[in-house]
Design a protein that fits this description.
The model is unreliable at 96-100, 122-135, 247-258, 269-274 and 350-355 (pLDDT under 50). This protein folds into three domains: 6-92, no CATH class; 109-126 and 252-348, no CATH class; 141-239, no CATH class. The protein is built from three helices and 23 strands. By secondary structure, it is of the alpha+beta class. Helices cover 16% and strands 28% of the residues.
Length: 355
């Protein structure tokens, strides 16, 4: 009789159910599945949840509630279900959208402005973000790059290091170069050496800021200032860091002052253009203008990675363009368009909180 305790996975490897760690994994998965199944059943069996402004309003233990109050221990916008002894937090209800006050007084403007500013700054602080598409510490390999053609000229030079891939820098960057080293920048209009545009014309040292790159893609070469031998390990303890140039001014002190809120709003509006509502008749692949777009829960445009209401920020030029989506539960998705087509959407792990 065949040993049914051994499972063959699609890749051909074996999974022994007699192994204690395997049994433990199965128990964990069953527990998780059962828990999710209970929550799903609660949400689907009784239809749409009721609204409760206070805990005392939650009188029907057979129905879930969306809490809209401010009592301690309960969260506005979360849904709750009764588990026979107490009300259990089911998380952010998926129909709750990002909300701001559209009828603010001059005293109240700054409060929403600060919340929106914090949201934007938290996006900027996320590394490896396709909207900025910069690697914080680029990988380096032996070799150099021709200043006339942009091609790799050698992969075994003992006094030069190079980035082996193209860095996407359409919106500018800041580069921190360790003491004793220098860099030579090369720019390309797409990810191929045939699209070589030009270079920095000289070696650069110290901390650099480039807000308007020569082209959307870049490689660079590193050497010692004294032109001595160099390996990737020599920069492991003091790496070259690459960071995006902020598109808002973080030095602004946004307190409870309408004046600061006005400055922040003007700077943001100047950078991202306009706000437009779109719907299921629109295609995210075909948005032609930079700016902020939004849509409602029941009218999601084509090629969105997430269902439900969301806000999209599009920024870039004719050759390259980036999009960021934040949906109503605080999930963020990013992608960028190169010379020919859009990349796949990637969901970012973050701690963004729904406003």
């Amino acid at each position: 009789m065949a040993d049914i305790s051994v499972i063959k996975t699609p890749d051909g490897s074996s999974y022994n159910l007699k192994d204690s760690s395997a049994r433990s994994d199965i128990v964990e998965l069953e527990t998780l599945y059962n828990g999710l199944d209970v929550i799903y059943a609660k949400k689907t069996a009784v239809g749409a949840p009721l609204i409760a402004n206070t805990v005392s309003d939650m009188t029907d233990a057979t129905r879930p509630y969306v809490y809209t109050g401010s009592e301690s221990g309960y969260f506005n916008g979360h849904w709750y279900y009764y588990d026979s002894s107490s009300w259990v937090d089911g998380g952010v209800y998926n129909s709750v959208a990002v909300e701001t006050d559209k009828n603010l007084s001059s005293e109240g403007v700054a409060a929403d402005a600060k919340a929106v500013g914090d949201k934007i700054n938290s996006i900027q602080d996320i590394q490896d973000c396709a909207f900025l598409d910069l690697v914080q510490t680029p990988t380096l390999a032996q070799g150099s790059i021709s200043s006339s053609t942009g091609e790799v000229t050698s992969t075994n030079k003992t006094r030069r290091l190079r980035t082996p891939y193209y860095l996407h820098v359409p919106n500018g960057f800041k580069m921190s170069i360790p003491e004793g080293f220098r860099v030579f920048l090369h720019f390309y209009s797409s990810e191929t050496y045939e699209a070589y545009v030009g270079n920095s014309e000289s070696w650069l040292e110290g901390d650099l800021t480039l807000s308007k790159p020569m082209a959307a893609y870049m490689k660079f070469v590193v050497s010692r200032i004294n032109d001595g031998t160099l390996t990737p390990e020599d920069l492991s303890s003091s790496p070259i860091n690459l960071k995006p140039v902020s598109f808002t001014d973080k030095s602004l002190s946004i307190q409870d002052k309408a004046a600061d809120a006005k400055v922040t709003g003007e700077k943001l509006a100047d950078k991202i253009g306009f706000v437009q509502t779109i719907d299921s008749n629109n295609d995210l692949n075909s948005l032609s203008l930079n700016g902020v777009y939004s849509w409602k829960n029941d009218s999601v445009p084509s090629n969105s990675p997430t269902m439900g209401s969301a806000v999209l920020l599009q920024y870039g030029g004719d050759e390259t363009r980036s999009q960021i989506i934040i949906n109503s539960v605080g999930e963020m998705y990013i992608r960028y368009k190169g010379a020919s087509s859009w990349s796949s959407w990637r969901q970012m792990q973050s701690t963004l909180v729904t406003l």
